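Annotators were shown the component list below and the corresponding predicted structure, then asked to write short factual statements about the assembly.
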Amino acid sequence: MTYAHYTLKDIAKALKLSPSTVSRALRDSHEISKETKVLVNDFAKKVNYRVNPIARGLKVRKSFSIGIIVSEIANNFFSQVVDGIESVAYAKNYQVVIAQTKESAERESLHVEQFYARSMDGILMAMSSETHNYEYLHDLIQRGFPIVFFDRVPQQLNSPKVITDNKKGAYEAVQYLANQGCKRIAHLTSSKKLSNSMERLAGYKLALMANHQEYEEKLVKYCDYGGLQQTEIEEALHELAKEQFDGIFISGDRLTTGYLQALKKFPGLISDQIPIAGFTNSDLVDIFSPSITAVRQSAFEMGKRAAELLIEQIEAKGAKPEYQTEVLPVSLIHFAE
Amino acid sequence: MTYAHYTLKDIAKALKLSPSTVSRALRDSHEISKETKVLVNDFAKKVNYRVNPIARGLKVRKSFSIGIIVSEIANNFFSQVVDGIESVAYAKNYQVVIAQTKESAERESLHVEQFYARSMDGILMAMSSETHNYEYLHDLIQRGFPIVFFDRVPQQLNSPKVITDNKKGAYEAVQYLANQGCKRIAHLTSSKKLSNSMERLAGYKLALMANHQEYEEKLVKYCDYGGLQQTEIEEALHELAKEQFDGIFISGDRLTTGYLQALKKFPGLISDQIPIAGFTNSDLVDIFSPSITAVRQSAFEMGKRAAELLIEQIEAKGAKPEYQTEVLPVSLIHFAE
DNA sequence: TTGAAAGCGCTAACAT
DNA sequence: ATGTTAGCGCTTTCAA
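Structure shown to annotators:
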């Protein structure tokens, strides 16, 4: 290694102290004299000493790093969540490692495996839309490995969760469409396996009922990959084109943008005058065409809370945490033509 | 540690072998008998053994992880580069750690520091638009620490680089505008510190010349934070509104979308009929309004090549690599109204 | 072909 | 207040 660092030993030798004294001085232990601390710290600074986290991790069985698993960082919602996570992780000196599943259950479990094997101190994750096997996660959690779920969470697992008030968000979006005069509102959503989709579906139904509109199976289209494959959205669009709907509520970031793209690609198939309300945290909604009403999640806040819960859990060695589920608010934003 | 893993020792004890034999068997050493290998590997699989990379790293002085530094992952261009990097890193069993600078030089050096201290095997980075001090990077490189630069690269540093054919991309974009009949083409660009901006400016000038159009200082507006702050774009817009330009070439992802957003925000200030050509890798360009012509970079490919170069360098212990600069092609894509 | 022993850099009992 | 020692889990001489 040509770019070798100074080690504790080096400093100890140079200062004629023992490595343990140096270690303690560096970590400001109370059992070290003021003079020694000054001596050590000055020297350390001079030679630009950095503790080796690999060695430290091996010793204290901690890596001071946490893993994040999301479907893809290109999704604005997730990149905002990541920003939130980083804001607390960095403050507490944890490194964050991001992994993408691209909605593949296999990649997801591989990443969990990797994170576990690499001695991550804990994991923050939003499930892939494909996942249906929670067995291995259950095991991990049972064995005390800290995991906090956010956004897309597995109900059956007993671990802290941070989610959005999906039902309310959906309800308000559909209510808004109804207020605009829509009498037959379609719904485009993703996999039935996703917790948030199901909650949004519930909100959709509730709002229909509140407006004395009938719930019709054929007005609801599912995209199993959450729109990661544009073809599934295009198929849904062609299906929907057979129905006479006059408003549409869309359940996810990728689906919302995908719907707009499909409208463009098949002009005349579905009128772009039909009002659209959709979940999206894209920061480009204002330049979308046609204009839409966006249901925005508190993404940054979600990342923040999830990270806080995780680090609490990591640092509360042993003490079983309460497995609460935190619910964050949504907001509707309208964009004029 | 409640969620303890099996260790080499555990396996050795269970199989009545020595840890060294187990270690060798697991890594398929030629000096281990076929039978022992089978025995060990079967058992390892059974108990779901994973080597502890922390311990291994401490021993072999390698962490099998590489750091990525970009301004922000929300930027589609960078998220595509990251995808490219991951595609080769995972294949070679390296973990990737992503850090965002948000265009801050301070955060950038902090991240480099952190990566170095955490024994990353190497770094892949695109400079922040604020960076002007390359001293510490120079030192690191001198000491043999592997760094590969991409997209926004420091000319003065002697390290491998992967960039886009910016000059050509700019030239073609401006040529296209000229072909559309534009006689006075403005240019919106980012910091003068960024290598790619300067190359694009050169391409812009060249194309103007080729079309016998005069280069005018006042038609070129700089945004020091690359549009990360929307206000700087809005200011540029107000400045530009004073000029009679009939076409605009924009030099970056964030700037391109920011320009469109500013157009929306200040209707009437600048006609949205004025043709726009801009660098962007957004995968939502087709639903932007107004429509634009996009200059697309080979982002995925860039990540791939950069990662390959870095891993080559990491694994070519000592042997000084050739410090080539690789140039990747761009393509123009037009979107109809 | 296998094992014993040392050591990567650090921390934490346990001395002193 | 400081030092000694052992050991985290792994790899790697060196010896058998």
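Statements collected:
1. The mean pLDDT of chain B is 93.
2. Chain B has three domains: 3-50, 59-162+299-328, 166-297.
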